[in-house]
Structure formats: C-alpha cells, structure tokens
Amino acid sequence: MDYNIAQLLKQQIGAVRDYSFSQDLRGLDPALDPVEPLVARFRVVRTKRGVLVTMTGTTSLRVPCSRCLEPVTVPVSLSIEEEFLQTIDIVTGLPLGTSADDPALLIDGHHELHLAEVVREYLLLAIPMHPLCREDCKGLCPQCGHNLNEGPCGHSGQPGDERWAVLRSLLDT
After folding, report:
1. pLDDT tens digits, residue range 43-78?
2. Same domain, yes or no, for 74 and 89?
3. DSSP assigned state of 140
4. I need a labelling partner for 74 at 20 to 30 A (CA). Which of 42, 46, 59, 165 fits?
C-alpha cells in the first residue's frame, strides 16, 4: 500500500488522483485475522502542506465472540480521512522540518505515501465492540468456563465461593 505521489506534489493545490486496490491484509498486525482482502477506493488531493487522503473500503475479519470466545467472521467497513504531510520540499529537496502527532502521517523523503499503518489503525478501531457468534449466544459458565451453547456444564448453578455463603443464605429466607 505504497504510492509515489511526487508528480501530484508538483501540481497546484486541489489537484486530485483516484486509486483503487484489493490488498491481502495477512501479516499487517497479529491482532487482525483477515478472512478476505481489503477492497478500497481512495482519493488523494493536493493541499498546501501535503495531501489529503479519503478512503472507503470493506473487508471481513475473524474475531472472538464476546460471550463464548468462539471465532466469528464480521464485516468491517473503513472510512478514512487523513492529511499526510510533506517532509521534503519537492522542488528544492530540502527538509521541511514537518512534525506530526502520528509519524505514519508523514510522506517520506522519496515522496512515497505509506498507507499500511493508517489502514491498520483504522481496522483495529473498526472491529465491533461486542461481536456475537449468534444473537442467542449463551456464553461461558462463570464457574468452569464450559461453552453453554454446547449444552449444560453438569454442575449446580450455585457459585462455589464460600465467602458468599452468608449472603446466599439471606436469599433463601
């Protein structure tokens, strides 16, 4: 996901380039388990300080169910809008002394736009907070950890911690 944008940086402010790609995401981050490639379209617009990148894309990731921890495939949509800043003047070749809060948003000295880190960050943020394998997922037994979707775990439903015995006796009365 690297693009040389030297010619765009030589143009006037407002110049536009459109790109599209299908990229395999395996190896991008150990926390991501992609099921299919990221299919994306993005636009690069020349700004005074660099380029503005707007991207939309879709993929599917395998994540653990938030109740039973079984793997579940979820569709993920990306919507990215970030300004990448120049570090080297395109005409003179001199450093610009540009600093950014996120070093991933800097255009390198060869005028290459590296999108992989930004895509990785946005993918991690796009993972659903509580993915479920199914709506009626019963989760795990709090005592033994048995997956309750596979059937009952075979022990009584009473908590085994004796420190709660006095409070439990109040429920019985």
Report:
1. 999 999 899 999 999 999 999 999 999 999 999 999
2. yes
3. B
4. 42
